[in-house]
């Protein structure tokens, strides 16, 4: 007779020799880890139980309160770490809830893989709970490549997995963003693997992609650029696509004495305290300084554009920013140059920005006789007010305190939410190094920063601070609970004015004050944060800002700082109106109106 202990030992030895077949869910999770994914953000559900379990064994899984928050966080985890991030969701509303955050990932240029569940074949069309299939959801939009996804597929059999993973690996290695959707029926999730999987090279952690997957700068194009840029003084307009080439950008600017402008998403890419820095263009930026430079007696004849579409959030399509001799426009996407300003002469170069700048620096003639004195450019940043005892905090005074306590006093990443929070932070804060400021200007969804701050803290394993409006915080305050669960060092600075204030101020400026309701009941966000287990404090006057901010950024876990701000102080968003007026100058007086239309 054999005792129980010997049976257990024999079973353990047998298990170590004869492993059960790996399932599709397990193989997929392992492949995602091999491809460089570290973090998975999502919301659970019965239909994807096997996927959820497999991801939890192999990746760092953070369970969110809403799928859109999970997708926003995955986007920011990618930008903070340079590694692809995974979003997981169940069938039906799990998928549709995630879509806003997924579209943000696509438009921001992140590398994100959405993994969801799908109805198994025998159950389709029979009215199952949260059925996900061609009977209930638009397959051409959600499960095929198109506007939402760079690649998408329903994994119908285990035999498909190697082919699908090869496509996934190629997408994650390529330069630029890549968003994929892999939906796996429940029956397939648990099916045994039918063939060995290929081994994959891990995607680069810097986000630039595999060098072999991006085009080399054309030598003739580089030579032509040298010729064009050598004819007369030029300036540089840098965007988020140049974020991996900060050192090369500075080297070129200083060698060529070329002043630099940045898009809002590229804020900090070139030091904002540098004598050659003109300012941030576009939304919340320093448009007056940029226009003054471009139309002054030291205006450049040509502008070298690096990694930006020059879309409305960056340029407002303002013709005053077009140089006399046009643009040299460098972008990895050949469809980008010439689109924003079709009337301007544009020499287009398809290349990754860092590769191009290194080739350009090698081809440029060395300066002789010592560098010339640096040309003076306008100082873009406004003077920030000193604190006083006002009953409500002026938003620009809050930004001055954030500059001292958060930007200058530490190394936290700062995210700014859509709306007036975006304009105040972009206009007032100053960064001297890349990678510390994040805004969304493409989709620009409310809630991106309020939940993305978790992904930023997760991805960098350090402090992340979100400057958010109270409207966005009310949309997504449940993710404070997610931060508490993990103890993430996430700080929310809530601009609390009881309004959707960009809408409120904008409607008033358009002469439609009181016609639309943009006001909501007062909320104590510090109390709300404490109710979910975070630390919290409320600031009602400017003389309390310094101490409260010091506590907010030194608390180990999540902290909600509720700041009662002066709701009537105009936000610095006038640049958009100037651009819109210039673009609409030839139109009738009945041309469409838009906001923000407030600020200075």
From TrEMBL:
The superkingdom listed in its UniProt entry is: Bacteria
Segments of this protein annotated with the region Disordered: 368-391
Under InterPro entries, the record lists:
DHS-like_NAD/FAD-binding_dom (IPR029035), THDP-binding (IPR029061), Thiamin_PyroP_enz_cen_dom (IPR012000), Thiamin_PyroP_enz_TPP-bd_dom (IPR012001), TPP_enz (IPR045229), TPP_enzyme_TPP-bd (IPR011766)
Q: Which residues form the Thiamine pyrophosphate enzyme central domain?
A: 225-360
> Which Gene3D superfamilies does the annotation name?
3.40.50.970, TPP-binding domain
Alphabetized UniProt keyword annotations: Thiamine pyrophosphate
Sequence ranges assigned to domain Thiamine pyrophosphate enzyme N-terminal TPP-binding in this UniProt record: 22-132
Chain ranges of the Thiamine pyrophosphate enzyme TPP-binding domain: 418-563
Q: Name one Pfam family in it.
A: TPP_enzyme_M
Indicate the family of this protein: Belongs to the TPP enzyme family.
| Full protein name | Thiamine pyrophosphate-binding protein
Species this chain originates from: Craurococcus roseus
């Amino acid at each position: 007779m054999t005792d129980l202990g010997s049976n257990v030992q024999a079973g353990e030895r047998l298990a170590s020799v004869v492993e059960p077949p790996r399932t599709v869910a397990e193989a997929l999770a392992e492949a995602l880890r091999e491809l460089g994914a570290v973090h998975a953000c999502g919301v659970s559900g019965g239909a994807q139980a096997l996927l959820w379990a497999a991801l939890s064994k192999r990746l760092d899984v953070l369970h969110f309160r809403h799928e859109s928050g999970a997708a926003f966080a995955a986007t920011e985890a990618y930008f903070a770490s340079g590694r692809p991030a995974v979003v997981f969701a169940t069938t039906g509303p799990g998928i549709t809830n995630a879509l806003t955050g997924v579209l943000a990932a696509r438009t921001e240029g992140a590398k994100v893989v959405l993994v969801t569940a799908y109805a198994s074949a025998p159950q389709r069309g029979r009215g199952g709970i949260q059925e996900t299939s061609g009977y209930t959801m638009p397959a051409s939009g959600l499960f095929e490549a198109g506007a939402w996804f760079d690649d998408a597929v329903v994994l119908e059999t285990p035999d498909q997995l190697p082919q699908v993973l090869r496509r996934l690996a190629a997408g994650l290695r390529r330069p630029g963003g890549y968003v994929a959707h892999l939906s796996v029926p429940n029956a397939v999730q648990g099916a045994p693997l039918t063939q060995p999987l290929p081994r994959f090279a891990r995607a680069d952690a810097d986000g630039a992609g595999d060098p072999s997957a991006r085009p080399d700068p054309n030598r003739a194009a580089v030579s032509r650029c040298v010729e064009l840029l050598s004819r007369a003084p030029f300036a540089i307009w840098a965007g988020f696509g140049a974020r991996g080439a900060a050192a090369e950008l500075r080297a070129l600017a200083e060698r060529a004495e070329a002043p630099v402008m940045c898009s809002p998403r590229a804020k900090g890419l070139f030091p904002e305290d540098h004598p050659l820095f003109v300012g941030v263009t576009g939304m919340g930026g320093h448009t007056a300084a940029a226009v003054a430079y471009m139309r002054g007696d030291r205006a450049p004849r040509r502008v070298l554009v690096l990694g930006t579409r020059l879309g409305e959030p960056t340029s407002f399509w303002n013709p005053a920013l077009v140089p006399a001799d046009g643009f040299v426009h460098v972008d990895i996407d050949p469809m980008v140059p010439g689109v924003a300003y079709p009337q301007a002469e544009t020499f287009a170069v398809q290349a990754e920005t860092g590769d191009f700048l290194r080739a350009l620096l090698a081809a440029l003639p060395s300066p002789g006789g010592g560098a010339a004195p640096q040309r003076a450019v306008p100082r873009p940043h406004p003077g920030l007010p000193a604190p006083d005892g006002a009953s409500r905090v002026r938003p620009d005074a809050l930004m001055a305190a954030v500059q001292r306590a958060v930007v200058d006093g530490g190394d936290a990443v700062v995210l700014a939410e859509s709306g007036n929070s975006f304009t105040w932070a972009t206009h007032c804060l100053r960064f001297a190094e890349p990678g510390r400021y994040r805004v969304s200007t493409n989709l620009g969804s409310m809630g991106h920063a309020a939940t993305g701050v978790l992904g930023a803290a997760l991805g960098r394993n350090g402090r992340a601070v979100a400057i958010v409006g109270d409207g966005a915080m009310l949309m997504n305050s449940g993710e404070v609970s997610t931060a508490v669960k993990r103890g993430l060092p996430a700080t929310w600075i809530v601009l609390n004015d009881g309004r959707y204030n960009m809408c409120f101020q904008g409607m008033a400026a358009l002469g439609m004050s009181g016609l639309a309701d943009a006001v909501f009941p007062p909320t104590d966000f510090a109390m709300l944060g404490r109710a979910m287990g975070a630390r919290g404090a409320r600031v009602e006057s400017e003389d309390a800002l310094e101490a409260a901010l010091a506590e907010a950024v030194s608390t180990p876990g999540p902290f909600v700082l509720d700041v009662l701000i002066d709701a009537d102080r105009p936000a610095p968003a006038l640049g958009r109106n100037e651009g819109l007026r210039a673009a609409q100058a030839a139109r009738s007086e009945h041309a469409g109106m838009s906001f923000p239309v407030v600020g200075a």
